[in-house]
Amino acid sequence: MKQTEKRFPEGFLWGGATAANQLEGGFGEGNKGLNIADVLPGGKERLQVLKQPGFNWEIDKEKYHYPNHLGIDFYHRYKEDIALFAEMGFKAYRMSIAWSRIFPNGDELEPNEEGLAFYDRVFDELAKYDIEPVVTLSHYEMPLNLVKNYGGWRNRNVVTFFERYVEAVFNRYKDKVKYWLTFNEINSGLMMPVMGLGFAIQKEEDRYQPTFQAFHHQFVASALAVKAAHRIIPGSQVGCMLIYAPVYAYDSNPENVMYAHEEGRFFNNFCGDVQIRGKYPAFVNRYFKEHHIEIEMEDGDLELIKEGTVDFISLSYYMSRTERKEKTAEEVRQGNMVGGVKNPFLKASDWGWEIDPIGLRITLNELYDRYEVPLFIVENGLGAYDKIEEDGSIHDDYRIEYLREHIKAVGEAIEDGVEVMGYTSWGCIDLVSASTGEMSKRYGFIYVDLDDEGNGTLERKRKKSFYWYKNVITTNGEVL
């Protein structure tokens, strides 16, 4: 253990994070409808499906395995899992509600009672251990009916359906949930509209117009959700949720510096500016002009967006990004939605994601300097292969090292004057990878006996990192 001089504030929300579609399972149970994740196959096929034009949104069990249908069976094992979170001392648990459990088709007039009752049980179990739920309203699990029959977020009607959904859950859980997030990694739609915006790019259509029209509808829906939460749940706080990856220029060539600046500003700040500042940033005007984008707006949309700004920023941070204006396809690195070129100063994970703890300190400072609202790190972690020793133990020192250095960076940012609310490590229990559908890409403090083909006992095991993180929380980050 290493002593740190950095002090985390009293009441800092230490915990872990998951998403319903990646751990719940319960496929078809409780009158749950199909959602986007239910039709995404596991393994290398997933990325191919996500990137190919004209995805057909159908399940083909003869051809593919669908790991999200089982997840890790949290639907039936939530009490066991929450007890393990409590054993680590979690102050907060960031989770999501599956929209298609509440409105199976998305366009019903009344919510599904079985779905509502399930989350009542989850929230009550968390309350038993004084764990604060931090709930994402939409985390890559849009009802499939809204995708297939409405065109996803391109369709203005989906704003109405989303408003109906959020009002139903706000009214139901107003005494159980204080912290809410609107759209998970909203800016991911720039790279992967299938999961975030609910549509696949078709061969015959231009990607720019539908993408930004869909974003506008999400901005309106987010503002409506913020206003509804403040009205229905006094004292509630609503955050946006961004992927953030600071962008470094490959060298001091001004061409590369300018390119890195433009790439970083657009990916990292476009959605944040609208949801936090309450207006479209000036820098998009040139982009819209050059790409012939004309957003259809209804009267009052811009006023609503201005009135419905979020209370705080939540973010995922896994890596930084290094950019050069001229690069070949072979030079592009893997990453969380974004790649860039290889940074010679950084190591990478088993999946090629570059590891940059200082980048998290840079991220927190950049966001706080720009927006001056509280920040909440709701995803950060290392996807890695874990080995079970003969005695059943799992020595994931590589994960401890990764998390230690990133948490130290959070402490440095707090010393810099950044207001940070909390830190919830991603995949606190092993779950299905969003990008590849693999179980072998493990993030958790808790091992789940399940392989990429869905074989295993689902037994839970504590890793070495489990005990390490428990001590971090107990000492409020003083001992890392």
Automatic annotation (TrEMBL):
<feature type="active site" description="Nucleophile">
    <location>
        <position position="379"/>
    </location>
</feature>
<dbReference type="InterPro" id="IPR017853">
    <property type="entry name" value="GH"/>
</dbReference>
<dbReference type="InterPro" id="IPR018120">
    <property type="entry name" value="Glyco_hydro_1_AS"/>
</dbReference>
<dbReference type="InterPro" id="IPR001360">
    <property type="entry name" value="Glyco_hydro_1"/>
</dbReference>
<keyword id="KW-0326">Glycosidase</keyword>
<comment type="similarity">
    <text>Belongs to the glycosyl hydrolase 1 family.</text>
</comment>
<protein>
    <submittedName>
        <fullName>6-phospho-beta-glucosidase</fullName>
        <ecNumber>3.2.1.86</ecNumber>
    </submittedName>
</protein>
<dbReference type="GO" id="GO:0008706">
    <property type="term" value="F:6-phospho-beta-glucosidase activity"/>
</dbReference>
<dbReference type="InterPro" id="IPR033132">
    <property type="entry name" value="GH_1_N_CS"/>
</dbReference>
<keyword id="KW-0378">Hydrolase</keyword>
<dbReference type="Pfam" id="PF00232">
    <property type="entry name" value="Glyco_hydro_1"/>
</dbReference>
